[in-house]
Amino acid sequence: HGIPRVAFASKEVILSAGTFVSPIILINSGIGTADQVAAVNAKLVKELPVGRSLQDHPTFAVRPVLVSKPEYTWNLENNITFEGIEEFKENGTGPVTASVQGAEAYFTSLRSLLSLESIQSPFDYYKWPDLQILYSAYGGDPKATDISCTIANVRPVSKGILTVNTSASSMGDNFLPILKYNYFSQEREFQTAIEGIYFCLRILETSIAFRIMGPPFTLQPYRPCLLYVFRSLEYWKCYIRYNSRSGYNSVGTCRMGSGPEDPKAVVDSKLRVIGIDNLRVIDASIMPNVPNANTLAPTMMIAEKGADEILKACNKFKTSNEK
């Protein structure tokens, strides 16, 4: 209720505020890079690269892809009716049960398979899927009969930075981070994404499964990129720059590493903040790299790992006190 409270821990403090807020709390507590700690007028307690390994799945949709039959598209404005809601309430059937996301696939780009890293590496990491493709019955325009294909680069190379919003008008606003993802800062990430676009279009335009939807699809040119030849490599680069967004799988702002000798690490393998006693970070912010799928399951695994480490530490504390 707006009243500051002070709490003291007898054993450990567990920070679990997520990829965006955990680093902000650390910085406001004097743990982070010297410039960021100074920016919030805090005393530097421990200099660590907090916020310096931000990573996410850059995502964009290829649209609008116009179709001739409206029954193959879906949006709230056209498909949700009072009758449909009643049908769902009574029978659990009808348009309300439909998923906008019709199909999804993961695959490995040819660029990744033929890369020097893939050929020389004894491991299969470079052969793991690096593209996620999602077909949707909703293209973005509630008044149009359009669909879309969404592409996510799920093994990006680029790393970004999270910093504190020092221009905030109140202390509470300081918890709003400034995010600089640096999406597609490397040429090979464009190559991978464009390969995903060609895969999407090939399925839409040539597969038997989509022929039942009527005449060939009409992909409309994107106005800001009309300077380039439609569907050329430069056109798609322009399209990606304008349309990329977060895949809502951000990680890495309190990156886990091997220990104090790791210049990129904020926490060690036991999730302890390096150089600070009895403080752990247990959430998605500790992931060194974004996994090539959604972050829910890995975050649950991190929580289980953290719980185990806390129990071990508590048992040691209990044993030493009994002695």
Q: Describe it for me?
A:
- By secondary structure, this protein is α+β, with helices and mostly antiparallel strands.
- The protein has two domains: 13-55 and 250-322, FAD/NAD(P)-binding domain, CATH 3.50.50.60; 59-156 and 183-243, 2-Layer Sandwich (Glucose Oxidase, domain 3), CATH 3.30.560.10.
- Helix content is 32%, strand content 15%.
- It has ten helices and eleven strands.
- The strands form four sheets. Strands 5-6-7-4-10 form a five-stranded antiparallel sheet, with helices on one face. The chain has a two-stranded parallel ribbon with strand order 1-11.
- Helix 7 (187-206) crosses helix 9.
- The longest helix is centred in the C-terminal third of the chain and has 27 residues, at 296-322.
Give the topology:
Layout: E1 13-15, H1 18-28, E2 31-32, H2 34-39, E3 46-47, E4 59-66, H3 76-79, H4 82-91, E5 101-107, H5 110-113, H6 116-120, E6 131-136, E7 146-153, E8 161-164, E9 177-180, H7 187-206, H8 208-211, E10 218-219, H9 233-243, E11 279-281, H10 296-322
Helix pairs in contact: 7-9
Q: Which architecture of the largest domain does the CATH hierarchy give at level 2?
A: 2-Layer Sandwich
Largest sheet: 5 strands, antiparallel
Q: What is the CATH fold-level name of the largest domain?
A: Glucose Oxidase, domain 3
Which residue ranges are poorly predicted, with pLDDT under 50 across at least 5 consecutive positions?
none
